């Protein structure tokens, strides 16, 4: 039994004294801590400039409530959102979506919210940079407009 303990001790010490073990013991916890700090930073990151949005309401019911509810302020007191335009029941939805995507890609607009005609369908939020938007915010914008709103389905606009 004593010989087995000596062998275990020797093997353990040879493994512990290696450069890989020492580096792994230091680097792995640092990478874990760095990952946690990155997540905390990204979650706590707030917008620094006003987001320009367009609301397209195919139902014709929710746009006024959403515009009224988008009253958040940035740290410097500026509004968090500026509604550039509200479109109720567009005559040509496909052409309008193409135009809005082009405006987003040319950075004249930050996002547009597409509210379907059937309110049982999810809303769509198209934007150039999804990181600038906190998904829970439109739910606050719908306060007072009824309990039956649907969550947003966000997507990135591409040319």
Give a written overview of the molecule.
The chain is α/β, with parallel strands linked by helices and about 160 residues long. It has two domains: about 45 residues; about 110 residues. Helices cover about 40% and strands about 20% of the residues. The protein has a five-stranded mixed β-sheet with strand order 2-1-3-4-5, sandwiched between helices. The longest helix is centred in the N-terminal third of the chain and has 26 residues.
User: How many β-strands, per DSSP?
Assistant: 5
Strand order of the largest sheet: 2-1-3-4-5
Low-confidence stretches: 135-156
Termini, distance in Å? 72 Å
Overall form: elongated
Order of helices and strands: HHEHEHEEHE
How many distinct domains? 2
Query: Nearest-angstrom radius of gyration?
Result: 26 Å
Number of helices: 5
What percentage of the residues does DSSP assign to strands (E)? 15-25%
Mean of pLDDT: 79
Oligomeric state? single chain
Q: What does the largest sheet look like?
A: 5 strands, mixed
Question: Structural class of the helix and strand makeup?
Answer: alpha/beta
Helix-residue proportion: 40-55%
């Amino acid at each position: 039994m004593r010989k087995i303990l000596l062998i275990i001790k020797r093997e353990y010490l040879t493994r512990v004294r290696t450069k890989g073990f020492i580096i792994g013991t230091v680097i792995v916890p640092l990478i874990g801590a760095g990952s946690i700090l990155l997540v905390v930073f990204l979650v706590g990151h707030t917008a620094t400039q006003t987001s320009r949005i367009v609301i397209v309401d195919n139902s014709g019911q929710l746009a006024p409530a959403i515009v009224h509810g988008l009253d958040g302020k940035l740290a410097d007191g500026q509004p968090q959102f500026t509604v550039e335009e509200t479109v109720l029941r567009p005559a040509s939805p496909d052409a309008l979506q193409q135009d809005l995507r082009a405006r987003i890609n040319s950075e004249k607009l930050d996002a547009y919210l597409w509210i379907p005609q059937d309110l049982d369908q999810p809303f769509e939020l198209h934007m150039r940079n999804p990181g600038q938007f906190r998904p829970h915010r439109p739910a606050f914008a719908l306060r007072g407009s009824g309990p039956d709103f649907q969550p947003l389905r966000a997507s990135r606009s591409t040319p």
